[in-house]
């Protein structure tokens, strides 16, 4: 990890402003005096690593950026960043694979913090079937695959609604992380065609969550998505992982997916 060029005080001030907090708000939340916070932000006082981490935790700074704050302050990183294929994260890989397998015959994927596909169960072939080969070259970005005209988009029946949902999620993620790569992805996806769409008045799934309505062959399928993250990550890589799983929103979809699994899977 490269040492940030900006002083740690400036970086902390940027995170505070990004979270729309005043120095008084941060002082009340952390027990650090506003005078000391001002000295830290202006560089008149060098914060200890414990203070940096206390402020970063209250500001909900991502683990990777907490490491960057420590480096900017002249300290060693506090959080490891192991490769997902390394032996240290073998228990994580095994746990996630069990979750993905258990979710079958319904689709589920593991993605990293930039929405790159890491793992998937067999049922995800339902979504990738019919997509252009260039969208399936590793690393596969699942948001690009979903909204690209050569990907899933032509088969998403409520594309405008689903597109708005995904862009909202990504926009919130950009605001929370200040990640330039995610910001570039948001700009790219926003340029894809999609159109406006409203859920049908008689759509029961649309009354509780945004459904994914997907056309497979001559059948209309309906899904509700769920997101699962690790509750207490200490590793940067693990903190960025999420399982995106899709549950059938009606009995017909559930029956179709079970039948496809019994028949040997999805046809290309």
From TrEMBL:
Cited CDD domains: HTH_XRE
Coiled-coil residue spans: none
Top-rank taxon, per record: Bacteria
Domain (HTH cro/C1-type) ranges: 12-66
InterPro entries to which the protein is assigned, alphabetical: Cro/C1-type_HTH (IPR001387), Lambda_DNA-bd_dom_sf (IPR010982), MLTR_LBD (IPR041413)
Protein name listed in UniProt: Helix-turn-helix transcriptional regulator
Organism: Micromonospora globbae
């Amino acid at each position: 990890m490269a040492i940030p060029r900006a002083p740690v005080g400036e970086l902390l001030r940027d995170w505070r402003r990004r979270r729309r907090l005043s120095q008084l708000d941060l002082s009340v939340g952390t027990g650090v005096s506003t005078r000391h916070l001002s000295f830290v932000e202006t560089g008149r006082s060098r914060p200890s690593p414990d203070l940096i981490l206390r402020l970063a935790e209250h500001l909900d700074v991502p683990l990777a950026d907490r490491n960057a704050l420590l480096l900017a302050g002249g300290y060693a990183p506090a959080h490891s960043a192991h490769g997902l294929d390394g032996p240290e994260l073998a228990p994580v890989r095994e746990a996630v694979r069990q979750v993905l397998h258990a979710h079958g015959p319904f689709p589920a994927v593991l993605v990293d913090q930039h929405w790159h596909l890491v793992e998937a169960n067999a049922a995800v072939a339902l979504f990738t079937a019919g997509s252009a080969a260039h969208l399936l070259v590793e690393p596969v970005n699942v948001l690009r695959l979903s909204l690209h005209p050569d990907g899933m988009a032509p088969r998403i029946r409520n594309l405008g609604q689903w597109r708005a949902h995904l862009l909202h999620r990504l926009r919130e993620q950009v605001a929370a992380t200040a990640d330039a790569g995610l910001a570039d992805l948001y700009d790219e996806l926003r340029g894809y065609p999609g159109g406006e769409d409203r859920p049908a008045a008689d759509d029961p799934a649309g009354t509780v969550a945004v459904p994914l309505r997907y056309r497979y062959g001559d059948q209309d399928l309906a899904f509700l998505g769920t997101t699962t993250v690790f509750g207490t990550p200490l590793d940067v890589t693990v903190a960025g992982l999420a399982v995106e799983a899709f549950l059938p929103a009606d009995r017909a979809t559930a029956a179709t997916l079970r039948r496809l699994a019994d028949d040997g899977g999805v046809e290309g």
